[in-house]
Amino acid sequence: MKRSHALLCCGLAAALTGCAGGKVNYVKPDFNGPDFVAMLPPNNLSNDLMAPRAALGAMSSAMIGLGYFPITSPVHEEILRKLGMTDGGQVNAFKLADLAKALGTDGIAVTTINDFNKINLGFYISPTVDCSVVLHDDKGERLWEAQAKFTEKKINIDPQAALQAAVGEMVGDAIGKMFKTHLIMESQKMAGIIVQTCSMNKPSLAYPGPLYMSMNAPAAAGAKSPGALGGLKQ
Amino acid sequence: MKRLSAVLALTALFTGCVVRPALVIRDRETAAKVKTVAIMPFFDVQYQMAFDPLYKGFGDSFIPAIMFDKNAREILGQRYQLMGQDQSVEALKKLGVEYKHTDSSWAAVKDPDSIRWGYTLAQAVQAGKDMGADAVLLCAQGQYFTGNQPSQALVLRLVDANTGKTLLGLNATGQPGLFSKDVVVRQLLTRVAKEAP
């Protein structure tokens, strides 16, 4: 009886732990990747007020992983504030080309936080971070769009273990909120999924983009001609 | 076989591992003419740790900004005439950039927003021009997870101080080792030193 109970627990745990995925929703054919990308404040559709900071940091890291140079700093936030943009939800009220010009970047990344929460019932603990990002060039044209979701499900069948887990997670969350690190690791895991999804896509969404790659194909292959834009070495 | 795997895992833990950086040359002709480079203050997109290039105190040798400056001077010093981040901070301050000095690493843990500061690209280019540099070197770092392993991601741009155009771009991702915290930075800079036009 005990053995079958243990097997059932293992089976449930195996079936319900770890669930993540990413997808590319749009790619402009033969786009030329921007060098510097301004990361706009995220459009937060979740109820968590800490979400924008964690999601923006993670999404900026993902952009670095993809080879772009993301820019997010208090100076840029001040420029946006002067233009009247204080929240990511206001992005549709602005022309992206104007924002890129004001920020002095070649590209603009618009992040949307679709879900950012943690369910803690002791018996069932599940953090979820779901974000999407759209990269635009300095004219406001959409270059690509991707989405990633990280979620984890932990099941505790034993009541004592469930109680311990619930208290442990509550303390961890309280400390995390105090130091502004709430769900940061989960956000970074979501960022890893974005990097993997975008770089594995055909064509790769990573910097410098498919147009540059096609123009520099002879250089990349080791031929003498450096190509129209310079050269690419992997 | 098991012993070999264990040795390889331990080596990776101590020395770290880096995916070979990808180098993109945007303007070969101008890049070849660059002689003087100003290293601009480091961007940390996560604001998880102090990135003040002038921070002095406990663990300062592990501060990414300081590590980057030290390695850049060592690795790129033979190739370019370099101006460090300390000089760039002064030039940026003259342009009106509000620089925030980090007094202790605790400040970054207590409230990451309190150590945040930054500058625009136009200010970086102008500062480089004012310093008499041909180009400015910009670097940013972030972190994300590859499976269950945290990866340090770095991106670098060499930008023409006269036109503001990117001359070359490079990015590297890897896991720093216990005894080689700067392995990703070194890989990135070594690639520039060896292969930039």
SSE arrangement:
The complex is a heterodimer of chains A (234) and B (197).
Chain A (H helix, E strand, L loop, with lengths): L1 H15 L2 E9 L8 E4 L3 E2 L6 H15 L3 E3 L2 H10 L12 H8 L3 E14 L3 E14 L4 E10 L2 E2 L3 H20 L5 H17 L9 H6 L1 H4 L10 E3 L1
Parallel strand pairs in A: 2-4, 2-5, 3-5
Antiparallel strand pairs in A: 1-7, 5-6, 6-7, 6-8
Helix pairs in contact in A: 2-6
Chain B lengths: L1 H14 E3 L3 E4 L2 H6 L2 E4 L3 E2 L19 H13 L4 E3 L1 H10 L10 H6 L10 H10 L4 E12 L2 E12 L5 E11 L6 H13 L2
Parallel strand pairs in B: 3-5, 3-6, 4-6
Antiparallel strand pairs in B: 1-8, 2-8, 6-7, 7-8
Helix pairs in contact in B: 3-7, 4-6
Question: What does this 3D model show about the protein?
Answer:
- The complex is a heterodimer of chains A (234) and B (197).
- By secondary structure, chain A is of the alpha/beta class.
- Chain A has 8 helices and 9 strands.
- Helix content of chain A is 41%, strand content 26%.
- In chain A, helix 2 runs parallel beside helix 6 (184-200).
- The model of chain A is unreliable at 220-228 (pLDDT under 50).
- By secondary structure, chain B is of the alpha/beta class.
- Chain B has one domain (16-195): 3-Layer(aba) Sandwich (Rossmann fold), CATH 3.40.50.
- Chain B is built from 7 helices and 8 strands.
- Chain B has helices spanning 2-15, 28-33, 64-76, 85-94, 105-110, 121-130, 183-195; strands at 16-18, 22-25, 36-39, 43-44, 81-83, 135-146, 149-160, 166-176.
- Chain B is globular.
- In chain B, 48% of the residues are buried.
- Chains A and B meet through helix 2, strand 4, helix 3, helix 6 and strand 9 of A and strand 2, helix 6, strand 6, strand 7 and strand 8 of B.
- Strand 9 of chain A pairs antiparallel with strand 2 (22-25) of chain B.
